[in-house]
Amino acid sequence: MPKSQVRKKKVYTPPTDIRPAAAAASKKPSPMWLPISAVALIAIGIAWLVVYYLSSQAYPIESLRYWNLAIGFGCMVASLGILSRWR
Fold first, then answer.
1. Band of the pLDDT at 3, cuts 50, 70, 90?
2. pTM, whole model, 2 decimals?
3. Residues 6+ apart with CB under 8 A from 85
4. 32, 24 in Cβ contact below 8 A?
5. Distance separating alpha carbons of residues 69 and 66, to the nearest angstrom
6. Of 8, 48, 52, 62, which residue is 20 to 30 A from 41 by alpha carbon distance?
7. What are phi and psi of 57, to 5 degrees?
């Protein structure tokens, strides 16, 4: 039985005229303040929660009660939002 002819496939190259702005924007590096502020927010959030628990809910701000937890975790979630923009 004869073999079928093998076809060579062309290598796909995406067109350059469709999205040149997106390709240029993805190559731009992140600013230096971005990872620094993210690490600072993580450290502030952890420190806020540690102080809250070790002081038996008396510090950092006693009148906020359980909202102190929201502040601590909010700082850490904000840092994750900042880190999602890091390239």
1. confident
2. 0.66
3. 30, 34
4. no
5. 6
6. 62
7. 65, 25
